[in-house]
Amino acid sequence: MPGAKQGKPSDKAPRSRGVKPAAPRPGAPQASARVSNTTPGSSLADRARDIARILIAHYPDARCMLDHKNPFQLLVATILAAQCTDERVNTVTPALFARFPTPGSMASAGIEELEGLIRSTGFYHNKAKSIKGAAEALTRRFPKHFPDRMEDLLSLPGVGRKTANVILGVCFATPAIIVDTHVRRVVQRLGLVTDDDPDRIETALARLVPEGTRTAFSHAVTFHGRACCAARKPDHDACPVRALCDSRDT
Ligand code: SF4
């Protein structure tokens, strides 16, 4: 948004609208079910596994909604998605990537031209610095291959754990817990975590969610947060995991 107040955008996962959940599947708890979410003998990990299984089945099309053709483009798009919708980012990136298709070309970009191309995503001063800085670091330190390790990704300007997990989970098939604003809200409501810090939420979820389903779980929870468990008015009646949720009657 032109003229938007500048500040440090948060490192958050992509957002988008128009999420369409799948039709209810056999075996999923009914929306109106009122059974206990703390079945005797079951653990939090059991509940997390059940929630992951149900949500992944309920949102079979859940995925990263940021348009990209390679890890570099996804890195840039994810940085631009901070405090912005995926749809908006997807309207900006075609021209950006046509003008600066590689880390080397983006590293050489004039900051004002970069700002002009990404202005409508908001926070464009800081975002331009971040994507140029990341491109410079990639060109200088990773000239032959895109980094595929958490510690290397975290060393890039503007890249936090959420962005790094997006890259690892989407581009490198590395199990990744991606804690965006939707995931944080939904897992708190479900009662899977009590913490509010994204890094600690990631650690807690990694203990609960089986490694092989972590990335799919992250996407499914994000879709659920958009489609059903909205920030202002969660639709408990339509929720496929209501029976397992600590907040189902609030
Ligand atoms: S029951 Fe309500 S609060 Fe719990 S996950 Fe479903 S929509 Fe969200």
State the name of the first-level CATH class of the domain at 44-63 and 176-244. Mainly Alpha
**Total DSSP helices:** 11
Q: Please give the radius of gyration in angstroms.
A: 19 Å
Q: Pairing-aware structural class of the strands and helices?
A: mainly alpha
For the secondary structure, the number of strands is 0
CATH architecture label of the domain at 44-63 and 176-244? Orthogonal Bundle
Average pLDDT value? 87
Strand content: under 5%
Helicity, as a percent range: 40-55%
Instruction: Spell out which ligands are present.
Output: iron/sulfur cluster
Which fold does the CATH topology of the domain at 44-63 and 176-244 refer to? Endonuclease Iii, domain 2
Main sheet makeup: none
Helix-strand topology string: HHHHHHHHHHH
Low-confidence parts: 1-20, 22-36
The separation of the N and C termini measures 35 Å
General form: elongated
What's the CATH superfamily of the domain at 44-63 and 176-244, by name? Helix-hairpin-Helix base-excision DNA repair enzymes (C-terminal)
Task: Please tell me about this protein's structure.
The protein has eleven helices and no strands. Among the domains are: 44-63 and 176-244, Helix-hairpin-Helix base-excision DNA repair enzymes (C-terminal) (Endonuclease Iii, domain 2, Orthogonal Bundle); 71-145, Hypothetical protein, domain 2 (Endonuclease III, domain 1). It is 48% helix and 0% strand. The chain is mainly alpha-helical. Residues 186, 189-190, 228-229, 234-236, 239, 241-242, 245, 247-248 line the site of iron/sulfur cluster (SF4).
